[in-house]
Design brief:
Layout: E1 14-18, E2 22-27, E3 30-35, E4 41-47, E5 53-61, E6 66-70, E7 73-75, H1 85-97, E8 99-100, E9 103-111, E10 120-127, E11 130-131, E12 144-149, H2 153-162, E13 166-167, H3 170-179
Parallel strand pairs: 4-10, 6-13
Antiparallel strand pairs: 1-2, 2-3, 4-7, 5-6, 5-12, 8-11, 9-10
Amino acid sequence: MYPRDEDNRNTPAEVVWQGKYQRMMVRGTWEYVERAHAGGLAAIIVAVTPQDEVLFVEQYRVPLQARTIEMPAGLVGDIHAGESIEASAIRELEEETGWTAARAEVLMIGPTSSGSSSEKIAFVRATGLRKVGEGGGDGDKDIVVHAIPRARAAAWLAQKMAEGYELDAKLWAGLWMIDHHLDGTPRA
């Protein structure tokens, strides 16, 4: 008989493999991955331009062996230790899209894949956007920026999925958060 998941709570975690960025952990009967650096928190940035366009990024992701469509995102504190979620989000938004934000607001934090990873993600709403560059990511990334009219964003995502792109389910949560608070009430 297998132990209940809660029975693993007090079992010490053991590192069974560690690479430069991630490590494989075993805790009781569970195996999972955690980030080796940056605290295991990423930010996904929900950003709408003054022209009412939602910002998306397209890039090749090696684990999927496919191009993906995502909202801009990145690790919190991977460049500057102790960097706030908000500062990380604005930095990643600018790096990936060429847009900066006057303000960033953390909307919620939750697990990305609770059965296989300890990583959490913060949904961050970026406002007061202005274009400051071309974006495209740092030297080792090939990011294509898409600014899609908000009224067509969901249809555009469905079209990209039909074309064979991999799409993160969090995209639809991000679209919902543009117009709604977490309790479902409309944003003013």
